[in-house]
Design brief:
Elements (H helix, E strand, L loop, with lengths): L2 H5 L2 H14 L10 H21 L7 E7 L5 E6 L2 H18 L16 H13 L4 E6 L3 H4 L2 H8 L6 H11 L3 E3 L2 E3 L12 H18 L3 E5 L2 E6 L2 H18 L10 E4 L4 E2 L2 E6 L2 E6 L1 H14 L8 H19 L5 H23 L2 H10 L4 H8 L5 H5 L2 H6 L2 H6 L5 H11 L1
Parallel strand pairs: 1-4
Antiparallel strand pairs: 1-2, 3-7, 3-8, 4-5, 6-7, 9-10, 10-11
Length: about 425
């Protein structure tokens, strides 16, 4: 079977359709949703297939969406139409078996069977082996700067089907719609499209090979690159040489202000950091990630958010499971204790506000085991929500067991449970 036939085979398209539907996502410039895609395909696919075979299919421009970065600034994403997401996903599925087996074992981003946790473990092992200096190479706006000719030349090394190459190029050149105006694309691969991950790995494979040829220990997750060496002087030399390869061979740009040479105890990778003990190097959570944890919990436990407690707990549990599932790799038991206490106190002040009136406060305090006289004194108190939430009376009325009965997950207990089953 030719590559083009494999691309448009019912099996490959069906798998791509299920993936697009599962990922959901926002509509593109045509407004079509993932729920509308399958019925639309039943009626119109014959015409799309005819245009693809004839080489006349033209992808619609992506819809530009700007989202805030966790560390400040903004990130521009491109949202293709759901039909173009389907075709791009189908392309990615036929390209992956061709390219992925030949990628470096030190590349972990957007690859089947690879994960961020594996990348962090490999980094920890390199540091534990004595490579205590870390080169952090920041590729400046990588997804916006990919040179079309350079990436297509690398795809053409293994793909000879001209129709497929023309289709990939058409997606690179599809353009961007911002504020109702279509802007032509002269470089870059839209971050957020199904084709972007495989093309980014194809593009950076040359860099991986060069680092491997020079005998360096390194970890790359998409455009996040760390190289591990034994001395500061060696690290500076590596940073200079990697910058030369990136800028001269790949026609990309290294952000010299954000790239750095750091000791391993100060280095971070994918939200994790490292610390040293007598038994070896351990994994910790980047303090920035802990601050983002508290920021998100603060929003979800805002007293101004008028929502039922059941709904609030559902949203909190979904966030806690996701956050802990990712960061369970790190040693964070002691750090979570203070966050857990702060989190429970915020939940108590929400409950106190919900009771509102004197009669409800007194009645609920008594129902929760507080003596009548004490219940009356606190029900009439003019102290603020935060102060009352930290009082011994409300801690006794609304202990951890109270929230456990409501199904609220605790941070420490969730982390311990995940560490036990890992």
């Amino acid at each position: 079977m030719s590559l083009w036939a494999e691309l448009l085979s019912p099996a490959n398209l069906g798998r791509a359709l299920r993936r697009v539907e599962a990922n959901r996502g926002a509509p593109g410039v045509d407004g079509m949703t993932t729920e509308q895609l399958r019925p639309w395909i039943r009626e119109h696919w014959a015409g799309v297939r005819e245009a693809l075979d004839a080489g006349t299919y033209r992808p619609l421009p992506v819809r530009r969406v700007v989202i805030p970065k966790p560390g400040g600034g903004e990130r521009a994403l491109g949202v293709p139409t759901v039909l173009d997401r389907l075709i791009q996903q189908a392309i990615a599925q036929v390209l992956t078996p061709i390219f992925d087996p030949h990628f470096s074992g030190s590349s972990f981003g957007f690859r089947p069977g690879k994960s961020a946790h594996q990348a962090v473990r490999v980094a920890r092992r390199a540091i534990d082996d004595g490579l205590r200096w870390v080169v952090d190479v920041d590729l400046d706006r990588f997804f916006d700067r990919v040179n079309f000719d350079v990436v297509m030349a690398r795809v053409a090394r293994k793909v000879t089907d001209r129709r497929l190459l023309k289709l990939i190029r058409a997606y690179l050149e599809a353009g961007v719609m911002a504020d109702g105006i279509v802007q032509a694309s002269v470089e870059g691969t839209p971050q957020g499209s199904p084709l972007s991950p495989i093309l980014s790995n194809v593009m950076l494979d040359d860099l991986d090979r060069e680092l491997w040829k020079r005998g360096h220990r390194f970890v790359r997750y998409a455009d996040d690159l760390r190289v591990f060496v034994r001395s500061r002087r060696a690290a500076q030399r590596v940073l200079d040489s990697v910058t030369t390869v990136v800028e001269q061979r790949l026609k990309l740009k290294v952000n010299r202000e954000k790239s750095s040479v750091r000791h391993a105890r100060e280095a971070t990778l994918l939200g994790f950091g490292f610390y040293f003990t007598r038994s070896g190097v351990k994994i910790r959570v980047d303090p920035k990630a802990l601050r983002r944890l508290k920021d998100r919990l603060r929003k979800l436990t805002s007293r101004r958010w008028s929502v039922s407690m059941i709904c609030r707990i559902d949203r909190l549990n979904a966030f806690i499971r996701g956050w802990m599932g990712y960061f369970a790799l790190a040693d964070l038991g002691r750090r979570l204790r203070d966050v857990d206490e702060w989190f429970r106190r915020r939940m108590r002040q929400i409950r106190w506000k919900e009771w509102k009136r004197y009669s409800a406060k007194r009645r609920n305090l008594r129902r929760l085991g507080i003596p009548d006289r004490t219940a009356r004194e606190w029900a009439i108190s003019s102290k603020g929500y935060w102060r009352i939430a930290g009082s011994p009376v409300l801690q006794r009325a609304l202990p951890n067991a109270y929230w456990d009965d409501l199904g609220l997950l605790g941070l420490q207990n969730t982390w311990r449970g995940l560490r036990t089953t890992a």
